[in-house]
Amino acid sequence: MRLLDLPAELIVLALSHSNIQEVHSFQLVCRAADIVCKSHHASIYRALAVHYDLAQETQTLEQLLASRRLYFDWLKQPTVDSEEGSALEEASLVESWQDYVKCHFLLERNWKDGKYVVRPRFDANGAHRIQIDEVEGTILSTRTTGSLRSECIKDDVTLWTHFATPAWAHCEFDNGFLIWGRRDRTIEVWRRDADQINDPLPACNPHDDQRMQYTQSQKQVLEAMEDLPSDSDTSESDSLAKPKQATDLVAPIRGCFQPFGLLDPPTSTSASRYVHPHLVLATRLLETVYVYDIPNNRLAQTISLEPADDGRPSTVYYVEHSRTHVFICTEDAVHVYSKADGKLYATVRTDIVPDLWLVVPRVPIWPSKSVGIEETQRERLIAVNPAQTRPHASGEFCAVHVSPCGNIWVIMNERNYILVIIGGNEDPTRMRVATIVLNDPELVYLAFDGHHIAVAGSQGIHVVSLDRYRDPTVDSERTLTRLIKSHVLLIPMKHVDMRSTSCLQLTDTAIWHVARKSLREFGSVITSLDFASIKV
Q1: Average pLDDT, stretch 37-66?
Q2: N or C: which terminus of the chain carries fewer CB neighbours within 10 A?
Q3: What distance in Å separates the CA atoms of residue 213 and residue 209, rounded to the nearest whole number?
């Protein structure tokens, strides 16, 4: 029986589990195949979007486009010629599921080929940590001089400021909740203004001084907004709502936040990580972890950590967590604890023997064109037999990140390599380990979103992309195969001193980096590497 003899429903079901290249190839087979694809293109491409985790099964296209303003802004901007850096005619908007899926495949191709636009912005006040709010299109940043700012991502206009935030504060942001620590052990929790007004949570219980700070900041924002154009001159995409008068403290304002609560952990903590809905706090030494349920504003779990094998105090460098586990990074190991029972689940040490060694050749294979910066080196990873490789210097672990599914762990060592661990969430005894050795004597910062690994080092930013659009599974063997076929982009950031890197963030469309021009200068440079603006 020929494939085209099957009912159209079965053909559509088969195509919805393939990829966009296979759909196009099938469409070119004959006229009948072309008719099937065109007649059911909405069903096919919507199923592809769900299959590759580009949309939720219950979402409509309109809901999807409205939920993340920043993520789709690039579709409304003029495209850029990757060879000349010149603007082309304005791109068409997404009008169908087919457009939506195609745009994502083009975006992923730019990630792999190293095609991006560089947009540096100097910050004289010294940004320290940043977070990107993709819903409202804002940059949230703490400062080396104190305060926290919310700025428009397009024109750097300050939308909201919290002056009581301490200098060099670390901040966390996810799903509309903004979190940072005070000088004492308490933790501030604020929520996006529009979210709290449109969908108030009953657990909201701010401290009195938080209420006072909110009132003062809102009055300053509203006074500044009096000078803005009237609603008739402002497009709906530029603001969520513009209050009618300066005394209107009810209307939601873009980029502003409301106090939600003040957490007071039983002991002082030094490391934090928020992945909605849980905030994980760890003590400075390897002793205790606190898990807070942020939407319900309560302490949900306390985990007592096991001491180091030699009995010496171990310092916690980094903390991460997934839906099921908490990851504690110390200098010589990453300790993984189960959220279900609070017990030690697995330990990854610096002397672990990998199943696969991947190295970057010293000479770049070919350059990749970019806009506004030096040529990016695009190099193919080379697999080396671990048995024939000399043991590497152990160094110290600095950070750990986990994919949203929890099944891929990435650990950074300060020397020159990262560990990619696959399958640890299923069975720690069967997890596969790959070591990627980078041509960089000093690694500083790690970011990982499940699809791209970004590492800031003294030589630049190293990027490894997993080709999720050819195989969205996280099967251990298939993921290792994808790693073997991967390339590493080395983006030379000559306009800053990479050793001063204070933050590195990943979104689906860009890399965000914060560093100083030199170690002697005070101000910082926030650089975005936009992989979505180049469409050709």
Answers
A1: 84
A2: N
A3: 6
